[in-house]
């Protein structure tokens, strides 16, 4: 038995009390994490607006509000396909940050999804990176594995790992170490125009149940109305392509590796499996055989599908909940009869779950973004102002701002965001939000590998383009893509 | 009339064998002082990157590693490039792109220059209009043309369908067979005004008295062009073609914005392919090897360009 002196006992008692008191005061532990096992639209509604958060006070415990410092920060910002509402929230965030931390000199730079990775990689090569960066979910592992990022876990900014989706935490973990914090996470949904469905002889209130139905419906819409049925996207170097093709690939039972399993090992390449080929065949059938999707799918991104949909020239597409707001914004800018036409489309806009594969498998990309701190040696000037970086990270990943910054197009990375009053307001004002939150449990993260950006942004679109242009057969395109992944994983 | 330029005078003074190298340098110390800042800047922003690119071309840089973890592979990158099917496809695309864009831009620019060289009402306005494509930002032009060509709701398609000339909009940039010619058309539209301006400047140097004399001697318009005008424009034509060719070899904005090298690599030219290899796929070593090869080709163009300019100088000096 260990003997403890009176002084030692007092010291232990004091330390333990202080430790418990400090943990109790931490915002993450002050709020019970959301129960993911109960996740449903009803559950989300039941917890919305049940808790108040004081962001400034919480972040003040991480970095004092009078802290004086300087921070360079790059982030994946709003782009042409985002609604105006989101632009306003981004503006509000930086204004609020400057008011909350008046002595931190913030130099922020917004970059679009498709530009950020290239620019960030180039900056890293020249040791000219910013001190902190908010990257798409795909990017974290690449930079963590190369040693550019500092370890950073939710606890470092006053939260707990339980406050975030487990899938999102996987995407910021490399070799057992956490290198970032999720800011937002989303899953997309299936959108269709009920009026087009009706005119094409389809049930206007029923989304296609399977991907085979999507192929069938797309053809029916095209044949009867002469417009594009499904909004296929196959542009290279554009995040939109994997976000739309991977759900199809996974639903058919395919994959790049075994990323759909609970504990993926990423050892076996599955792109050339019969299931993966069946998914590619479905795209081929729509683009080449039936010609029922936009011809411009090879050079376009989702932002090009939005005006097509609003003009009543597209029947179905996969997209964010924000697309409803985007349509409202676009409709406001329309003039004359176009305005009325656009309103008709908006009135007929419907959201549903993404279709399943032949075996009833439903899947969607678990998307989002993460925020990271760089190691000083890769930063311009060779110094990182950690307290300043943690201040902005605490604020962005707070329940309040992780929700507001994802108000229209995503969901809060911090699950406590679902409990805020702004979530309640959001559920009341954003149509179809229920549907996209219902897709969250079906979300599959991209493989947490440094090679993922190349696989998703180049190899997958290349495979689609090779098959859809006839440069290769479906089998050849899938085999070619599998070989490219194999070479890539082999370091070639 | 003999025009003595500064360069010609300097060349005369630099006849070999008449003085030592140091003496020559001393004689031209002011000249060297003038070009020294430019040389210093070039050493920093051009010479070092060239050296680094050449060095990097001998290393393997896997996407999962930092650049400092690169491994020396000798000429492997060059061997891999020269034996890959993609290289030959991209090279073929680059040749079609460069030759097509350069040749047609030059011919159209020359024709426009000849037309605008005549005195007619509205010539100034027309000249200003024709220069517009050249002064428009290439990025803006690319987006506009993407819209014009759009395979679903492009202007050309809408007009053709509206006039009943086509059942559905033609596929310009989403087809492997039409994408490159479509991009070349955009490039020609953008750069023929450059050729036009160069050739218009050249036309002003053609002695008027020679043309009048030829007319008096009974030469028809074609003979006057072929035997008087064209010989006077030989050097400016060479320089224009070389400048266009170099610009086209290095052309990035139009193909990258309009198609990103797709579909299925059908519009990838060297420079877009190098960009994708380096920044999209992080194969810095292979991309550097590609760049070295491109550099050698461009230096060859540069050599002929300087020769063409020197030819002008020699001609000027001896006339």
Automatic annotation (TrEMBL), chain A:
GO terms for cellular component: ATP-binding cassette (ABC) transporter complex, substrate-binding subunit-containing. Keywords: Periplasm, Signal, Transport. GO terms for molecular function: maltose binding. Transmembrane segments: none annotated. GO terms for biological process: maltodextrin transmembrane transport; maltose transport. The keyword Transcription regulation does not apply. InterPro entries: SBP. Belongs to the bacterial solute-binding protein 1 family. This is Sugar ABC transporter substrate-binding protein.
Automatic annotation (TrEMBL), chain B:
The keyword ATP-binding does not apply. It is a multi-pass membrane protein. It is found in: Cell membrane. SUPFAM superfamilies: MalF N-terminal region-like (SSF160964), MetI-like (SSF161098). GO terms for biological process: transmembrane transport. The chain crosses the membrane at residues 32-51, 95-114, 120-140, 172-189, 239-258, 287-306. Its main location: membrane. CDD domains: TM_PBP2. Keywords: Cell membrane, Membrane, Transmembrane, Transmembrane helix, Transport. Pfam families: BPD_transp_1 (PF00528). GO terms for cellular component: plasma membrane. Belongs to the binding-protein-dependent transport system permease family. This is Sugar ABC transporter permease. The lineage of its organism: Bacteria, Pseudomonadati, Pseudomonadota, Alphaproteobacteria, Hyphomicrobiales.
